[in-house]
């Protein structure tokens, strides 16, 4: 797993035997203030203290309401009573309780002082759980305003009572208001505050005849999709102006061009950003031959090396230079790009139109479910890519020199600084053969004395040759940044996954549903587990439990165990199994076969509904066009994750390979997607049949070129530098990414956040699969009936269809068990014999008849 987290705070105390044979403590645990503040025990103590204060206050306040009259004379003497042993106080919390309550209630806010207890409670709970269970800031706002307003209102309404209902502060505000505005004016102001509060809070509809219909503010998830188009446009306008891209590149949206589009979410930013590249202000240092340099705006002549990408104008060497003779390294100026240079792969899937009216809402079962917020995650260091100008210049010179040594002349060189590597793009002089540069990979690596140099000759679609050189200082790409980005939160993907950042610092967010399966490989310790966590966390951040289920296979037993806490939210398992995370090979085989049955069942449902894929089917179901009585139901996506595939293939071979291949071939349309990881990317593990069905593949660093070829059908993965540096092959295009980093404690927090919320009563159940080998063949005794015999009989009689697939679907059974049940029903005289592809005849027509028949069978 990512980082095997060790408890930081429990430093073992080393002990040594001294000469007398007794044990003595050699080193005391040092307590440092900084450490103390980070120590979870400190937080727990602080949390408990705050909670106790809140309980202290509430008890003393309530007690005060009943005892203030008797205690009044003593309390009004002030704190001196604390030291007077003769003073007797009736308040439940004694003198201190009485004095505190008196101060808050009598002197300050009257009854409204009770609100102050909630503040201590909220802070206490947050500290104790080290999580933002309640918003302190919101509470503080409500408490402060509430105390002022409530105390003023009470003082205004009950001015001359013996008990100070509004306290000193209330009396003061009410007195000032009545003094300035008179009784009526003061009453009006206070009433206005109360009314304004209710309008703000509940936004009641004041329906005048002919008033335009207001768009409904949506609730969870699909609300945005259901809001009327005009509302979305308004939101869109706002977002265009207010929300900058997270990766430092300025977001430019051509509002004019998009004006007629109603749905902001359908606006794909990338092409627009690309179209406006010049205005986006990416940092770019261009190496232009002096002849090719056109007069540029003054500010662009200086080489920007570090700073805010948004502040810089983009000098674009748009027109290719006239053919000119090659120049020396000093004549070439470097162009640095730190903004997107190419659009992200277009993987957006058109989403099905949300049904209006009384659409079925699958999320309603867990309607209070809240998706985790990016605040739960850590920002790992600065996200800002550091560009060392000296390093860039040096590398540039080395590249030019090395190429010059081999008589390769270049016209132009530019650099794009990414989180881990810098891409130097060169345009060779006319007549230079590309293969010549490709062959110099090792020489350039040697001259730059850097590992992990990769040459891309040519870069597809750009007409340049790329040389990737690792940065001296690498930047960690935090998962938090990706998940907080607009691109992720506004994505319309079915299964959005935030994988990392491209070399141009663009967030790489793709749709697993269109991939449609993913193969991940890489030597041990190069970032595979972090990659799997990044994918799982992305999905947890974007989906509701009703929309997605995971089947987790973890032969290593420890990698995915953290997810077992969300079993009733997001996991699927076989019936009668205890663990949702599958570690045993035999169970893996059963689960894969169960998934195949689920796939077949789903295809039956789709066929019945006349839909081509899960999206159409779910859209039809939510529009209530499919009858649940006929077995139709909302189908969640199922993502199968296998953490160590090699292990499974070694132990189970074809028994695992076949169902995986079958799923990979057929399952995409019905919403089952596979993610398979292995640390041994050899041909006997990643077989031809597996490879053919996994078009999307990720390679972390591997140990040999052969391994790289096995995964990607190309070299390069052996030259990566590890720690999440990866190549992804998607739609036939290979891109280098820095994988997003999410640490184990962060995953823990996200999982805790979900597990803490209400889940389903049980995990999502896959159909039962019974291994044929486990079934005894031959005749069976009626006394030996299946436990589901009677249920099956009732189902068949109620529907009057003698179909095995009906049993499979409605009772979530495997084919074998359903078939066996059908044979038993035939033997019992409930259905007729098999009629080939037609359903069997049902011999019993009514439930009453069936009951008599069953009673007779005994
Ligand atoms: N994206 C990343 N950014 C920064 N550091 C990373 C990244 N991915 C991995 N690392 C570093 O590499 C270490 C190993 O990563 P990880 O546990 O994912 O490797 P692995 O390939 O799964 O290894 P194994 O197969 O042995 O489990 C991590 O503890 C972390 O320090």
UniProtKB/TrEMBL annotation:
Residues covered by the FtsK domain: 505-709
Alphabetical GO biological process terms: cell division; chromosome segregation
Name assigned to this protein: DNA segregation ATPase FtsK/SpoIIIE, S-DNA-T family
Molecular functions per Gene Ontology: ATP binding; DNA binding
Annotated positions binding ATP: 522-529
Keyword Kinase included in the entry's annotation: no
Annotated Basic residues bias: 1-14
SMART domains hit by this protein: Ftsk_gamma
Membrane topology, record value: Multi-pass membrane protein
Start and end residues of each stretch annotated as Disordered: 1-21
Organism: Niabella drilacis (strain DSM 25811 / CCM 8410 / CCUG 62505 / LMG 26954 / E90)
UniProt family annotation: Belongs to the FtsK/SpoIIIE/SftA family.
Localization (cell): Cell membrane
GO cellular component, one term: plasma membrane
UniProtKB keywords: ATP-binding, Cell cycle, Cell division, Cell membrane, Chromosome partition, DNA-binding, Membrane, Nucleotide-binding, Transmembrane, Transmembrane helix
Primary localisation category: membrane
UniProt cross-references to InterPro entries, sorted A to Z: FtsK/SpoIIIE/SftA, FtsK_4TM, FtsK_alpha, FtsK_dom, Ftsk_gamma, MFS_trans_sf, P-loop_NTPase, WH-like_DNA-bd_sf
SUPFAM superfamilies registered for this protein in UniProt: MFS general substrate transporter (SSF103473), P-loop containing nucleoside triphosphate hydrolases (SSF52540), Winged helix' DNA-binding domain (SSF46785)
Ranges annotated as spanning the membrane: 45-66, 104-128, 140-158, 173-200
């Amino acid at each position: 797993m990512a980082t095997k987290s060790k408890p930081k705070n429990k430093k073992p105390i080393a002990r040594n035997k001294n000469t007398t044979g007794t044990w003595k403590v050699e080193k005391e645990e040092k307590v440092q203030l900084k450490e103390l503040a980070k120590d979870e025990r400190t937080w727990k103590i602080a949390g408990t203290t705050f909670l106790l204060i809140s309980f202290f206050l509430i008890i003393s306040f309530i007690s005060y309401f009943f005892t203030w009259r008797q205690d009044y004379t003593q309390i009004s003497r002030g704190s001196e009573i604390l030291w007077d042993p003769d003073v007797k106080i009736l308040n439940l919390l004694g003198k201190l309780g009485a004095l505190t309550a008196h101060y808050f209630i009598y002197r300050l806010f009257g009854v409204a002082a009770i609100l102050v207890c909630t503040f201590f409670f909220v802070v206490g709970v947050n500290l104790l759980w080290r999580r933002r269970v309640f918003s302190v800031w919101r509470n503080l706002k409500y408490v402060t305003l509430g105390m002022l307003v409530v105390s003023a209102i009470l003082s205004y309404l009950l001015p001359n009572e013996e008990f100070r209902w509004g306290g000193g502060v209330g009396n003061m505000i009410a007195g000032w208001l009545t003094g300035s505005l008179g009784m009526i004016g003061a009453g009006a102001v206070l009433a206005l505050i109360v009314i304004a509060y209710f309008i703000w809070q509940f936004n009641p509809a004041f329906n005048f005849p002919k008033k335009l219909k207001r768009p409904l503010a949506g609730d969870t998830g699909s609300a945005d999709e259901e809001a009327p188009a005009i509302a979305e446009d308004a939101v869109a306008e706002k977002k265009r102006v207010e929300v900058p891209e997270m990766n430092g590149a300025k977001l430019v949206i051509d509002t004019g061009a998009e004006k007629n589009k109603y749905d902001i979410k359908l606006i794909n930013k990338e092409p627009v950003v690309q179209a406006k590249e010049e205005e986006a202000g990416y940092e770019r240092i261009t190496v232009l031959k002096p002849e090719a340099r056109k007069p540029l705006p003054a500010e662009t002549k200086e080489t920007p090396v570090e700073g805010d990408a948004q502040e810089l104008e983009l000098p674009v060497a748009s027109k290719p230079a006239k053919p000119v003779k090659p120049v020396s390294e000093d004549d070439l100026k470097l162009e640095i790009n730190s903004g997107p240079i190419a659009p992200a792969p277009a993987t957006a899937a058109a989403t099905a139109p949300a049904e209006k009216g009384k659409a079925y809402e699958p999320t309603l079962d867990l309607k209070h479910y809240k998706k985790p917020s990016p605040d739960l995650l850590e920002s790992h260091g600065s996200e800002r890519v550091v560009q060392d100008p000296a390093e860039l210049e040096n590398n540039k010179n080395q590249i030019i020199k090395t190429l010059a040594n081999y008589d390769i002349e270049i016209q132009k060189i530019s650099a794009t600084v990414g989180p881990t590597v810098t891409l130097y793009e060169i345009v060779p002089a006319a007549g230079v053969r590309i293969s010549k540069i490709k062959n110099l990979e090792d020489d350039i690596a040697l001259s730059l004395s850097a590992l992990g140099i990769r040459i891309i000759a040519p870069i597809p679609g750009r007409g340049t040759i790329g040389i990737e050189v690792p940065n001296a200082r690498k930047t960690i790409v935090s998962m938090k940044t990706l998940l907080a980005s607009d691109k992720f939160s506004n994505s319309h993907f079915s299964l959005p996954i935030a994988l990392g950042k491209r070399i141009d610092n663009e967030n790489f967010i793709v749709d697993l549903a269109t991939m449609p399966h993913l193969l991940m490989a890489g030597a041990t310790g190069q970032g595979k587990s972090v990659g799997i966590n990044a994918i799982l966390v992305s999905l947890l951040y974007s989906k509701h439990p009703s929309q997605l289920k995971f089947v987790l296979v973890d032969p290593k037993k420890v990698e995915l165990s953290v997810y077992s806490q969300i079993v009733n939210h997001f996991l699927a398992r076989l019936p009668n199994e205890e663990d949702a995370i599958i570690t045993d090979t035999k169970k893996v085989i059963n689960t894969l076969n169960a998934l195949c049955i689920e796939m077949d069942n789903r295809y039956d449902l789709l066929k019945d509904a006349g839909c081509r894929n899960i999206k159409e089917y779910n859209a039809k179901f939510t529009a209530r066009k499919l009858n649940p009585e006929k077995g139709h139901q909302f189908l969640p996506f199922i993502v199968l994750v296998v953490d160590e595939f090699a292990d499974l293939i070694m132990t189970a071979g074809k028994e695992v390979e076949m169902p995986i291949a079958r799923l990979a071939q057929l399952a995409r349309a019905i919403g089952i997607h596979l993610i398979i990881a292995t640390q041994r990317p050899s041909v006997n593990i990643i077989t031809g049949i597996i490879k053919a069905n996994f078009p999307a593949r990720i390679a972390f660093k591997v140990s040999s070129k052969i391994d790289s070829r096995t995964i990607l059908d190309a070299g390069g993965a052996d030259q990566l530098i590890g720690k999440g540096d990866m190549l992804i092959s998607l739609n036939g295009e290979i891109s280098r990414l820095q994988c997003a980093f999410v640490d184990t404690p962060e995953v823990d927090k996200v999982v805790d956040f979900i597990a803490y919320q209400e889940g389903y009563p049980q995990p999502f159940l896959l159909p039962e699969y019974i291994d044929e080998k486990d079934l005894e063949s031959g005749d069976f005794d009626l006394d030996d009936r299946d436990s589901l015999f009677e249920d099956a009989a009732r189902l068949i009689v109620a529907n009057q269809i003698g179909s095995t697939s009906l049993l499979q679907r409605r009772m979530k059974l495997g084919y074998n068990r359903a078939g066996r049940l059908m044979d038993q029903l035939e033997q019992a005289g409930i259905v007729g014999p098999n009629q080939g592809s037609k359903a069997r005849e049902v011999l019993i027509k009514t439930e009453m008849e069936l009951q008599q028949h069953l009673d007779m069978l005994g």
